[in-house]
Write a structure and sequence with these properties.
The protein is an all-alpha fold. It has two domains: about 1-35; about 40-80, no CATH class. It is about 60% helix and about 0% strand.
C-alpha cells in the first residue's frame, strides 16, 4: 500500500484505498508516512503479527493497550 501511496499512477487498482489513506493522513496535523525496517519498529510489527496470526483484531481497540505493551515501547524507544 505504501508503494501505491507514493506512486498512485503505478497502482491504479488501489486509487480508492490511496484516497482513504491520504484523507486520514490529512486529518492528522503534521502526520507523514515513513517506510522503516521492521527491526526499527518492533512494537508495530508485534501488534500486526498478533492481529494477523493470533486473530486479536479488536482487543487493542476495545481494551486499550496492555501494560506490558507500554513497557515494550518504552524499552524500544530507549534503544533509538
Amino acid at each position: 500500500m505504501l508503494g501505491a501511496v507514493e506512486r498512485p499512477q503505478a497502482w491504479p487498482s488501489f486509487l480508492h484505498q490511496v484516497g482513504v489513506i491520504e484523507l486520514g493522513k490529512d486529518r492528522i496535523e503534521g502526520s507523514r508516512l515513513l517506510v522503516v525496517a521492521s527491526q526499527a519498529n518492533r512494537g508495530a510489527t508485534f501488534i500486526a503479527q498478533s492481529v494477523t496470526k493470533q486473530g486479536l483484531m479488536r482487543s487493542y481497540v476495545q481494551n486499550g493497550n496492555p501494560p506490558w505493551l507500554f513497557e515494550f515501547f518504552v524499552n524500544e524507544s530507549s534503544n533509538l
